[in-house]
Amino acid sequence: MDIEEAIKKALYSVSTLKSDSDIVGLSSLFKESLGAKQGSQSSANISKISIESTCGETCSACLKPVYPMEKITADKYIFHKTCFRCKQCKTKLSMYNYTPLHGEFYCIFHYKQLFKRKGNYDEGFGHAFKFYLHKD
Predict the structure, then answer these.
(1) Please, which of 44, 99, 120, 128 could form a disulfide with 111 given CB 3.0 to 4.6 Å?
(2) Counting runs of H as helices and runs of E as strands, what totals does the chain give?
(3) Ramachandran class of 103: left when φ > 0, alpha when ψ lies in -120 to 50, beta otherwise
(4) Where is the LIM zinc-binding domain (predicted)?
């Protein structure tokens, strides 16, 4: 297997990876397959190659790369499935049990509680009531 062919295989495989340990495992296999065929000189060069995620999207909560299999998009925000949580109670949310409010996400229970507490949804938890004067 020549270097170009091995790189193409590795890059194709990267798009299906789910964790950093998968990347480490792939890079070690990549080094072994080329090292056996090309000798120690190529093996030293291969160690300089960094296999990184080809994914360009980052999680809005943790700011780490999001792979397609773990991606949730809510109101144009991208999350890992495990990072998509209620702002108030930190319960894991899904596409069926969340409500957005001003770029923040709540479980249905806390969204309803927010309305009961304030009488409206605009002020959020713990915000002081504000009066707005309108010029006529």
Answers:
(1) 99
(2) 4, 4
(3) left
(4) 57-117
Which comes out higher in pLDDT, residue 45 or 61? 61
Cα gap 66→80, rounded to integer Å: 6
**Cα–Cα distance between 111 and 124 in angstroms, integer?**
9
Q: Are 98 and 124 in contact (CB under 8 A)?
A: no
What is the residue whose two structure tokens read 């964790």?
19
Query: Residues 67-78: pLDDT tens digits?
Result: 999 999 999 999
Cut 0.70: pTM above it:
no
Give the Å distances, CA to CA, from 94 to 91, 108, 124. 10, 11, 21
